[in-house]
Each structure stands twice: as C-alpha cells, then as structure tokens.
C-alpha cells in the first residue's frame, strides 16, 4: 500500500514528516546553488534558476532562506567547512614531524581546490564584495584558518623572543600568502603541477618557521 500523502500541518507527506521534507528541499537548494555559484557565478544566478535546478517550487525557497545572499552564505559556509576539514585531515598524526604535517596539510588543501574548481571560485571570488554581512563571514573563515595554523605551528615557535600576539600577525601573513598562491593558481587554470604549488607554499611556511623557531626540513 502506498504511503499517505498529507498536507504540511504537522502531518506526514509521502512517508516523511514536514520537517524532514523541508530539510531535503533545503539540501537540494544548497547543492543546486553550489553548482550554479561555482560555475556560472553568484551574480549570474537567480533564485528562479536555482529552484528549477533543485526541483523545488519557488515558494519553498523562502521557508529556508530569506534571499539569494542568505543562500550564498550557507553555500560558502559549507565550502569553507570542506576546506577546513581537508586541512585537518592533512595535518594528521600529531606524532609526525612538523614539516611532514605542514606538507600534508598543504597537499590536502590544494588537492581539494584542484579536484573541485567550484570550491575556489566560491571561496576566493564569488564571496567578495557582496555585502558587509558576507564580508564578515569571509573574515570569520580567515580567523578559523589562522586558528588552525596557530595550533599547528605555535609549539615550534620561540615564544620567549616572539610573543603570541606577534606570532598571530605572522601567521595571518602566512595564511594570506597561501591564499594568494591558491588564487593565482586557479586564475592561471592550474598550469603549475600540484607538487610545485605545494612546494611553493611549503617554502613560505618553513622559511618563516626557521626564522621564528627552530624547524628545519
């Protein structure tokens, strides 16, 4: 016997509770927006086209998002979470030598950028200059990346001669340098081999560590 199809007044519809249906629609909208923002661009995409791609009626868009910017923020958060997760996985074994962990983290980060070009387009380009709210989200992710690097690198830094507040500013510079390397790589259509890009980032990080700590490859 077929499952009951009831309305949205707290009853079940096609075997799923209303809240579950809403979550499914929301997920489809995020998936469709990730594809659209990551290929056509945020400014070239409409709510109507996202709804069509997601197979969701336009009226249902507004049960999850206030407008396209709200959806962009959610897509960006998911993309940023993928980047941060890749870095965490790359850092790996805490018992490994710091150069190994740095290289592994950089490899995982750049590999994700290479494997899914939607990620850098959204995270590096589509997110910029949209609104002050979106700018704050971008800087929140930047702070999260700095926190990850601080946790990784601080144990190898000479804090007696380099106070933590100064180290954080240095790490900010490192994160900015890696972001610029990644952006240029994307803009150049990935012409440099992955290993060369990783080597460039690794050189930047270890050069700084050799200056403020005692790390050598």
From TrEMBL:
Region (Disordered): 1-24
Signal peptide: none
Record-annotated HTH tetR-type domain positions: 23-83
Annotation: DNA-binding region: 46-65
UniProt keyword list: DNA-binding, Transcription, Transcription regulation
Keyword match Acetylation: no
Pfam families found in the cross-reference section: TetR_N (PF00440)
PROSITE patterns, alphabetized: HTH_TETR_2 (PS50977)
Protein name as it appears in the record: TetR family transcriptional regulator
Highest classification ranks of the organism: Bacteria, Bacillati, Actinomycetota, Actinomycetes, Mycobacteriales
